[in-house]
Amino acid sequence: MYKQANPADEVLRRKGLRFNNEQTTIFSPTTAAGSMSRVSTQRRPRPEEFDCDVEVDGDPVRDSTQQTNGGTPSFASRRPRESTPRSGSRRRKSQEPSVVSAMQSYICANDTITHAMAECTTSLVDALELLDGGRVHDCLCSAGCKSKVSDARSNHETILPARGQDLDFINIVHSHLIHSEWDKLSKLAPGLTPFRIKHILLKTRKDHVISFEFFNWVDLKNSKSNTLDVISIILHILTKNRHFKSSESILRRVLETGSSDLDFPRRVFDALVYSYRMCESSSRVFDALFKTHASMNKFRNASDCFRWMSECGFYPTVESCNTYLSALCGLNRSDIMLVFYKEMRRCRISPNVYTVNMVIDAYCKLGKLETAIEVFKEMEGMGLACNVVSYNTLIAGYCSKRLLSGGLKIKNAMEKNGVRANDVTYNTLINAFCKEGELHESNKLFREMKSADVAPTTVTYNTLINAYSENGNSRMAIQMFDEMCVRGVKADILTYNAVIMGLCKEGKTKKAAYMVRELDKGKLVPNSSTFAALITGQCARNNAGRAFQIYESMVRSCCYPNETTFKMLISAFVMNEDYDGAVRVLKEMMRRAMAPDSNVLSSIFDGLSRDEKEDMVMDLRNEIESRRLLPEGFEKFAIMRK
Q1: More confident residue, 30 or 582
Q2: What CA–CA distance (Å, rounded) separates 516 from 518?
Q3: Which of the residues 40, 94, 470, 561 has an alpha carbon 20 to 30 A from that of 545?
Q4: What sections of 382-508 are H helices per DSSP?
Q5: Could you tell me how far CA 27 lies from the centroid of its own chain?
Q6: What Cα–Cα distance (Å) separates residue 448 from each residue in 209, 397, 427?
């Protein structure tokens, strides 16, 4: 029998909506073929709950329970009427469209609010999940994570469930693991696959110790089974349990194996993103990746990782940022370091004292002392207290600009502010005054250092001994050396070299030889500077032959001279009019790819010409030209060709 269509169903069909019997569920067609997306669910309103007039097809229809009195239709109240509906009563058919329209208006009016509430709820859930890492700003960009990484999470947050033999294998291995039955596990090693390993790690992730032991065991038995997906899971487990050293060690090993692949860092990051929610992880796993890149001096990879993290709403900790900044400082890339610091501030990563100290040092190295002072003054506004490193860095900046009085003012200011000067403070100032030749001020600071109960170090004594030796005061250098030994400060090879150089400059070669023998007592080995000092002493006594013997001993000891040593030897031979010896040293110099300067060549060629050794001149000229070591602007050869 033909069933008459319900007017309510007809209205909903035209709108692309439909009702269930017990609940009112709005379904809207989507772009996908035949797919329907559920928007909202609420209790189905009864017709008698509407106490208002409605319009159907433009005609106002008054509720039968409301008195008209010729007045205008009233929409004063949309709340359900509290009166009990009449049981068994039925509405007239002419009123059915009115009821449907009222229901339609009621639902559509709340449609926008429902969508907004759903989006806000999703954003809040994502934000709370990201707060697991303990950083509030990690969730700033997590409202749905609208980047492409958010899509990756939703597509890869689960893995296929284990069934059949895989499930049995996983349960058996898990049982052996929790009972530490490693002998039985060894028999199952051939059956390990990446799929099974991932399930086992997920099953044991609540006990990170067992998970890590199992991962290491698999790495020994069948390292190829530890794929990137497997490694990402163990990294999530370790970082969530704050085992950062272990996770960074794994990351370093993984990144070193894939260093030849330019896309490998991105693949590692994506693997961590895909397994992020599945492992209930925290943002510290990405922080560990960034820190590992920085500690390996992979600055491009670290910068890329920082950018990828920010796209996901994650940011590294200030400690990891400090690792990156410190690595840049070590390579004297202060310019890049300052750019990264500004990016840190833009991303609201709060710096600590260590961060700001490095920034001050960077500005000082770039010669921007005024900017460094401004940053120093801003520390209090950041809620940071200047420490001794802050003051020492600024003092070093003043000294590098040769503003020694400014450095002393900073030292006095730090003492007034309750920051006690240390050995680095005094060593920086003493070294600056020594370079300027103001040994009196250096001695004054040295005495002040001892009176302030700041123990002088090896660096302190080496600075003073070297300054006295350079100024030709070997007596004070020896006195400082003796005081150093009495105080129990250990002398190093730099200490002995400074004393030997001071003695040799004054021609005191016997005392210098005695100091060389003393090296054995301190279990120290002579280096190039030691031999250069001895050669200097022999040259000062015009003993070129002895100087060349020391040079040969130097080469036998695998210590190689620099250009200064070669020029000193050549000058000694020329002064003794031993041009054959000078040529021999010159050839040694060229053999080591060191270009002689114009003065050296002029003195040798002039001497050879006076001795009428034209053949030697021609041979030497040809050898210099063939090695392309001819000094720029040297015209001697042109004269000889005529």
Answers
A1: 582
A2: 5
A3: 470
A4: 388-400, 404-416, 423-435, 439-451, 458-470, 474-486, 493-505
A5: 50
A6: 55, 22, 12
**Predicted confidence band at 358 (pLDDT cuts at 50, 70, 90)?**
very high
pLDDT digits (tens, 9 = 90+) for 210-234: 999 999 999 988 888 889 999 999 9
Q: How many degrees, rounded to 5, is the angle at CA 435 between CA 429 and CA 437?
A: 105
How distant is the alpha carbon of residue 63 from its chain centre? 72
Average pLDDT (484-511) is 92
Name all domains of the chain by residue range, CATH numbers in brackets: 7-72+96-126 (no CATH), 136-316 (no CATH), 350-454 (1.25.40.10), 456-561 (1.25.40.10)
DSSP states of 508-549 as a string?
Answer: -HHHHHHHHHHHHHTT----HHHHHHHHHHHHHTT-HHHHHH
H/E segment holding residue 42: strand 36-43
Considering the chain, what percentage of its residues have pLDDT values greater than 90? 47
∠ CA 461-462-465, nearest 5°, is: 80
Q: Of 470, 634, 513, 554, give the one whose Cα is nearest residue 562.
A: 554
Q: Which two tokens stand for residue 238?
A: 């370790």
pLDDT at residue 228 in the model = 92
Q: Is the pLDDT of residue 158 over 70?
A: no
Mean predicted confidence (pLDDT) in 60-76: 40
